[in-house]
Design brief:
Elements lengths: L1 H39 L7 H10 L6 H26 L3 H18 L3 H15 L9 H21 L4 H29 L2 H11 L3 H20 L7 H31 L8 H22 L5 H11 L9 H20 L4 H6 L4 H9 L1
Helix pairs in contact: 1-2, 1-6, 2-3, 2-6, 3-4, 3-5, 3-6, 4-5, 7-8, 7-9, 7-10, 7-11, 8-10, 9-10, 10-13, 11-12, 11-13, 12-13
Amino acid sequence: MRTRLSDLVKERLGTFALTAPSIAQCAVGSGIAWLIAIELLGHPRPFFAPISVLICIGVGLGQRLRRLVELVVGVSLGVGVGDLLVSWIGSGAWQLALVVALAMTVAVLLNSGALFVAQAGSSAVLVATLLPGENVGGLDRMLDALTGGIVGIAAVALMPASPFSIAAKHLSGVLDALSTVMERAAEAIEKRDVELAAEALEEARTTQAAVAEFEAALETSKEIAMISPLHWHRRARLARYETAAMPVDLALRNTRVLVRRTLASLGEASPPPAALAEAMREVSEAALLLQLELGAGREPSLARHALLAVAARERPKGLGFSAHVIIAQLRSVVVDLLQATGMEHEEATAALTPLDEASKGERR
């Protein structure tokens, strides 16, 4: 219980460390946007300015530039429709319903993005309820939204989180998951343990969430590196993560198939040999090497050499059907991870022991 609580505290602290820069950006940016709208634009209550900062920056991972555009256009659309209709039909329950319906309908027809539609609807609500008596024009609110969005982007550029750290943390989660699943599958083969193989399969089925988080983190990292002059020099290091993104995803998918077949094979008359478990363990270690080398900003040459050694290994002889399937999936994982190190697909495939030669060896 105490260990579990300690792990939870470490996880929460790690999450806070990752989001702390965004929290600081939101806090500072909101105050600055409020001051600009009041002091420079002369708007008495520019609440759209700090709101725009919060929505533009957020505390999660995503496409801030796209969110900025959707925010400003969505607010402008909602304010425009709201101001126009309220000036014609006045305020009230049915007027509010009509204004929201029309604003959101137009937003859906123009763009299906959830943020765009939500901003159009909420802006129309504010115009139709809270704001008519404040004598504030729709143009002022649109300028407030634009001001907050620009301040939000400036905060990302001048107070940036490390794009490299964001990408490295999330790819580490993916490669850790791949390595752990592969290691457990190898152990299950060595011990002929069906329950351990079932646990490995159950864990493998949860790994796609880590891939989705990494993809979102990579987009955010690329965005920060593009916006912030402080991190332009990190683009080359981020390029390695871009290269690894798709192959690592494919490697995890192939690992899930491999573990599923491992579980099936343990119930057959000819279970997989220990030599196959050894190869799986070597791939697991290579995944961790890839994680360490990318995290250090180095060319992943050690991981590539380890994977090439597995690729050149001859297949065990006298295998059953499931063992052949496991080897096929393991070969696919090796090719995927070699591509993650920067090799081209044709070069990675050529590094594998030819299947026809392996078959000859089995017949001899």
